[in-house]
Design a protein that fits this description.
alpha/beta, Rossmann fold, 5-stranded parallel beta sheet, 35% helix, globular
């Protein structure tokens, strides 16, 4: 049986990880970094918009956002991003499958994943949005 090659799909692209839960955000950020991506973290939607306007060290290639957050929730953040930066790929992290209702239509994210997700599911979602 052949071992799976240690391939990192990210080639330096930057992912903005948005989640109000510092533990979840840290875990997801680590998974994204280990997949070969650069990471910028944001605590909520307004913080994410500030990061998008002046990202540290360059362009944000993908926004990976939670649904439920204080200050500005994920659906509102996605709406603003679609208005200001319509070509920015978004991966929506849903708390539960029912959170996906209405999120995949026009103006919705390119891809959604439901928590808890595996590292492979996250990598596939990022690869999918970047391939478009």
């Amino acid at each position: 049986m052949k071992a799976k090659p240690d391939k990192k799909p990210g080639s330096g692209q930057t992912v903005l990880v948005v989640d109000d839960d510092v533990t979840i955000r840290g875990l997801v950020a680590r998974m994204v970094q280990e997949a070969g991506y650069r990471v910028i973290e944001a605590e909520h939607g307004m913080d994410a918009l500030r990061q998008l306007e002046q990202p540290l060290g360059g362009t944000v290639d993908v926004v990976l956002t939670n649904t439920s957050m204080p200050v500005m929730n994920g659906p509102r953040l996605m709406e603003v991003i679609r208005h200001k930066r319509p070509d920015t790929p978004i991966v929506h992290m849903a708390e539960a499958p029912e959170d996906l209702a209405g999120m995949l239509g026009p103006g919705g994210p390119v891809c959604s994943i439901v928590k808890p997700f595996t590292r492979d599911e996250l990598e596939r979602a990022l690869e999918q949005v970047l391939a478009r």
